[in-house]
């Protein structure tokens, strides 16, 4: 009688590839409307390249799952930082939110959507820290809840057309602290360019 062999478990690159194929859903209006982000498709080789470039390789004795978790964690935070830096901080420094600036109202509304997208990504990262003993995830995870609340608060304000200059400045300080903390632990967070719903 022949016995069927179980297929080997997918390697970290394949797992990351499958993870990236999941569509992100953002409840930006809180009124029953949702927007979906286009699926990100990467080959196994490209997925492995993303993981290796996002993270400084950990000790050899680490489990493969830890490497995968850190890569996914970094992807969420990298996407959040990209949205903030591209659609909020840079336009703010270019005075695109000031009264009289071309497209001021539209720029402010787009910034709000970007911050709500960032909050979604940060919340996804928070979920990964709730049941982990990894020192890096736990350390960074402690900074995320307040950051997420601020992103949501300022994001809703901007989405409704209210320019919150102090809120934007505070977010930049929080983001800088987060990035510096991650880099000091050997796991720098780099911006990940992804499509953002509504932008």
The largest sheet is: 2 strands, antiparallel
* H-E string: HEEHHHHHH
**Mean of residue pLDDT values:** 78
Strand composition percent: under 5%
From the spread of the alpha carbons, the general shape counts as elongated
Helix content: 55-70%
Q: Number of helical segments?
A: 7
Q: Which value, in Å, is the CA radius of gyration? A: 19 Å
The secondary-structure class comes to: mainly alpha
Straight-line N-to-C gap: 59 Å
Features:
199 residues, 7 helices, two-stranded antiparallel sheet
Structure commentary:
The structure is a single chain. With 199 residues, the chain is an all-alpha fold. It has a domain at 65-199. The chain is 60% helix and 2% strand. The protein contains seven helices and two strands; from the N terminus they run αββαααααα. It has helices at 12-20, 44-54, 64-93, 104-129, 135-141, 144-159, 165-184; strands at residues 25-26, 35-36. A two-stranded antiparallel ribbon has the order 1-2. A hairpin with an 8-residue loop joins β1 and β2. α1 (12-20) runs parallel beside α3 (64-93), α2 (44-54) packs across α3 (64-93) and α3 runs antiparallel to α4 (104-129). It is elongated, with a radius of gyration of 19 Å. It starts with 11 loop residues before the first helix and ends in a 15-residue tail after the last helix.
């Amino acid at each position: 009688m022949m016995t069927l062999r179980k297929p080997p478990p997918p390697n970290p690159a394949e797992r990351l590839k499958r993870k990236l194929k999941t569509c992100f859903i953002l409840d930006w209006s809180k009124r029953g409307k949702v927007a979906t982000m286009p699926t990100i498709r990467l080959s196994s080789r490209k997925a492995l390249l993303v993981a290796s470039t996002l993270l400084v390789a950990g000790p050899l004795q680490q489990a493969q799952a830890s490497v995968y978790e850190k890569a996914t964690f970094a992807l969420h935070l990298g996407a959040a930082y990209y949205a903030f830096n591209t659609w909020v901080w840079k336009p703010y420094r270019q005075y695109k939110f000031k009264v009289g600036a071309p497209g001021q109202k539209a720029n402010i509304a787009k910034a709000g959507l970007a911050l709500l997208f960032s909050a979604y990504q940060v919340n996804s990262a928070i979920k990964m820290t709730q049941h982990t003993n990894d020192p890096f995830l736990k350390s960074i995870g402690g900074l995320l809840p307040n950051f997420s609340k601020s992103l949501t608060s300022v994001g809703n304000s901007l989405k409704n057309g209210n320019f919150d200059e102090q809120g934007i400045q505070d977010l930049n300080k929080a983001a800088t602290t987060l990035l510096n903390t991650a880099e000091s632990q050997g796991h720098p967070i780099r911006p990940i360019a992804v499509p953002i719903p509504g932008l």
